[in-house]
Batch of 4 targets.
Target 1
Amino acid sequence: MNVGTNGIVVDQHGNVLLIKRNDTRTFAPPGGALDAGELPPDGTAREVREETGLIVLPVRLAALTYLPLSPSGFLGFTFRCLLRGGEITSSEESPVVGFFKTTPLPRRMSGFHRERLEKGLAHAEERPLFFQHQVSTFTKAARFVLQHVVYRWLDVKRKLQGQPPYQPPPTWEVATYFLCRNEVGAYLWHRPQADGSWQLPGGAASGLVAPWQTAVQLAQQQTGSQLRPHHLSDVYLGPKGNQLTLIFTANPVGDLPQASGASLAWFSPDNDTVSLNPQHQQMASNGTPQIQPTRFHSLAK
């Protein structure tokens, strides 16, 4: 899966920072692909500085989005940012940089960038939005032209100028797990094998489906109940440099699942009488029922 970030920066007049991309010639909030081993807030600050010359502090995740374009889709983190310094400077990737009115936004803007920007600007909660973009026929056609015409021409241009060839961004492994909490503060766990460790419901993303939707399907198979994701509480990087784990609090649709003992049970993270998956145990220990801004962590190798 491809993973990228965008930064929403608003000046004292309520105008929003935008770039004009050199490949599509459309306007967009500054952002780009996440580097391997990089946390999404750090990637946002880096991309904004590279593309605009401005120094920003990402303070709150406003939206987690998924764009289902082949081969494996695009996961996007959109942050509200504070301006800390620097001077507006254009770049090869962003020949036009500036602050623009939000009503109306520039007409030449892709549908998914417009949706992220409009929803991100209107969002004021600590709990981030999460949604999947609809892919239009025009978006698919534009993507085809970019891959087979524009990017090939840019590669030829780099070669003629003696620059190194374009290096594609890393492919990421993304997994989503749910923290489903009962009235006494225990979390729901399942055990895939009778002699294995207990794990949180969910699993790895696959296909052109938003990661949290894949987790809903897996959790239903694992627990026999439908869990509804509520709040993206934590995001973990690692232990390999191209792995992201999304942790959502989740609520059951209907009654709480009934523990079966052998494969389904409720445990607190500090339970030392059973074998809990160590990483999942750490993630559950960090969990909290309170709504607060999404937290970002690095897992030790």
Note: The mean pLDDT is 93.
Target 2
Amino acid sequence: MPEKIDCVVIGAGVIGLAVARRLALAGREVVILEAEEAIGTHTSSRNSEVIHAGICYPTNSLKARLCIAGKLALYRYCAEHEVGHKRIGKLVVATDHAQIAGLNQYRQQAEINGVGELRLLSADEVAELEPEVRGVAGFLSSSTGIIDSHGLMLAYLGDAEARGASLALASPVVSGAVTGDGIVLDVGGREAMTIVCNTVVNAAGLNAQAVARAITGIPPGTIPPTHYAIGHYYTLAGKAPFKRLIYPVARQDWLGVHVTVDLGGQVKFGPDFSWIDRIDYRFDESRAAAFYEAIRRYYPGLKDGALQPGYTGIRPKIAGPGAPAPDFVIQGPRDHGVKELVNLYGIESPGLTSSLAIGDYVAALLKD
């Protein structure tokens, strides 16, 4: 006879762990099912590890609301739980006068979103803050920071386990069905089993749509399409020339090749952006020339041979080439008609920053 479980969270990335933590703190019996052999092996560990300010997201979007609420909660959480982080700030730079209009759009949207910290900087002020950076203008976001994403996931997991949650690794959901007694999940892996759940939260990231399609009874029309976008990161050899994160003025679909500095002081450049048709983390070293060209627009001192291949990450996109960047899609019972089910789709950046707020949002959907 299938085992009965109160609440199952599918996916042990930063979002799944944040949701599991939130539900466990509310007194729910929680089991986390993770298809891989470890937590956070996909998007959660292959990103820029940035705490975003919430500057550029569309007005009243989930990305804007959850990023700003999540940022405030995340700084508090990291301080209280001794998770490695640092509020180092971000310098956004216009490399020519035509991009100044873009800076002003950033500032206007930031004010609408409630991020009133931006001040336009002259070329001299940019150079004073970051002598190696060339720009005709810019602004500084003081609330942007960096974080140890793995340490954060371990803290979330520790909180959840302290409240009785359990983690099952190498336990992929292979099929399921919505029934009158709950949501039945067939779990694969070394110890295959069938479980019946009162509540299911699908936080499977890159595989969220595949998981939803595998569960009979979830209306197919509520499941968005699946698209993947890969980004490459190069690391910089030698001493870090920057104190802050450096971002060029963004394009429509991505933020450009930017500079991040991790907690160990290593400088990374990336990500770039290209569409792929499957999950494949292989590094394309032919991209180096394009990186040198993009970076030298704001860091002309970059020397030949200074870039070393780093890693790649893949964004879980729900809209393809040419389409506007969509909002997070977090569907509760009112959206798809299935009781006690929440599906999370397209949780890309600023998902990590928003993770605590997303946990609260999911918990509220399950109360409706």
Note: The first strand starts at residue 3 and ends at 10.
Target 3
Amino acid sequence: MSLLLEPLAYAFFVRALIAAVLVGVVSAALGAFVVLRGMAFLGDALAHTILPGVVGAHLLGWPLSLGALLMGVLTAVGIGAITSRTALKEDTAIGVIFAGMFALGVAMLSATGNYSQDLAHFLFGNLLGVSTADLWLMAGLSGFVLLILFLLYKEFMVLAFDAVLATALRLPTAFLNYLMLILIAVTIVVALQVVGIALMLAMLVTPAATASLLTKRLTPMIFVAAVLGALSGIIGLYASYYLNIASGPAVVLVSTAAFVLAFSRKLLLRN
């Protein structure tokens, strides 16, 4: 019991624990739709394209979340506009924007004096450095994403399983696609300080992918993914405390281990 209670004596650890649970739940819930729609590459691209916004906010002394949110939303809308108004396929448009924006962010960062340290912070997060103000922002943005998913659950479900049916039912598919992109961008901002830009895709995809191996229905999949995401955050944070390893990668490794176990179980049941 002392192993569980000892870290809780530190306020920074408690804040980090709350942040890890928030990120685990909201990333996994949205990740269920990302996995079903095959949007993993898009999520990874969005995570990397916010780097110029983060660096710009850092250089101007603004909150990093503000720069990330602005750039994330602009990128999401830009990808949607390019794919809907040109003959380019979505993955091509994503690849072009992904490479260009990430390169811009690295170039901006290289102009500062603390290139290596700042880049590592942005790429891999700083979970133990989460402040009370960060927590309130994360809670607000997480609540916004979860509320939209709750209100438009049926519409997103139809679009995820059958886009043709969604069009036949006269659902606003273009609006829903843009909204999904924006929700992914907002979720990336929520997870920015916890796992960073480089590892964000793991929190968005891995718990949902694990849940998809355990259940085939969407609603249970979302709940299982959210529980797995929260547990990954908690176990990963404790592991980072006792093993003296980086917190963000520790959270992702726990999540990946859960996927490996679920995949192994599925293989054993098949045989």
Note: The CA atoms of residues 21 and 230 lie 4 Å apart.
Target 4
Amino acid sequence: MICPYCQSKNTGKIGTEHYYCWECFVEWTIENGNYTLYQVEEDGTLCCLDDLFGDGWYAERGS
């Protein structure tokens, strides 16, 4: 799996359709072909970045 944000191959699967990037430290999920990107906060909670990037951000990056 390649990170949809930084394009790194240094990623891992942490759940069903849930992935983590060891280069940019983001998590993402894939549901029905749509990516949702999350920032991991200091307390371990996930903050959804969809509002920041908007719908279809991964298609614009050429993923």
Note: The chain has a mean pLDDT of 86.
